[in-house]
Design goal:
By secondary structure, the chain is an alpha+beta fold. Helices cover 47% and strands 15% of the residues. A hairpin with a 5-residue loop joins strand 2 and strand 3.
C-alpha cells in the first residue's frame, strides 16, 4: 500500500497519474503482470515511449519490474502493479502542504 508522507510525494504521484497512457498501463497491469513487448502491443505504442511511461510509474512506486527467462531462454522484462489506494481530501492536503518545496524554474532547467 502506497503511503504519501509529504507534499512533494503527492505531487509526483499525481503527476504520474496525469497521463492517459500511464492510466491505461495501470488498467492493464491491474488485470495481470505483462512483459514489455506485449504491453506495447496492447497499448499500441512504441517500446521506447512505453519505457518512458513505465519509468515514471516505477519512480513513484506504482509498478515494479523484474526479469524472467522464457522456455526458449529469452530474457523477458515483466511489470506488475503494486496495489495502492489514495484518499485525497482537504485534511490530507492540509497535512502535506507545509512540506512542499518550491523550486525555481531555473533550478529545474526549465
Amino acid at each position: 500500500m502506497k503511503n504519501i508522507n509529504n507534499g512533494d510525494e503527492l505531487l509526483k504521484f499525481l503527476e504520474a497519474l496525469s497521463n492517459p497512457h500511464r492510466l491505461k498501463i495501470i488498467a492493464v497491469l491491474s488485470e495481470e503482470k505483462q512483459y514489455v513487448s506485449q504491453l506495447a502491443r496492447d497499448l499500441g505504442i512504441s517500446r521506447p515511449l512505453l519505457y518512458l511511461h513505465l519509468q515514471k510509474l516505477e519512480e513513484v512506486g506504482l509498478i515494479a519490474s523484474y526479469m524472467e527467462i522464457s522456455e526458449n531462454g529469452k530474457a523477458m522484462k515483466f511489470y506488475e502493479l503494486i496495489p495502492f489506494q489514495l484518499d485525497i481530501n482537504e485534511q490530507m492536503i492540509k497535512s502535506v502542504v507545509l512540506t512542499l518545496t518550491f523550486k525555481n524554474k531555473k533550478e529545474k532547467g526549465e
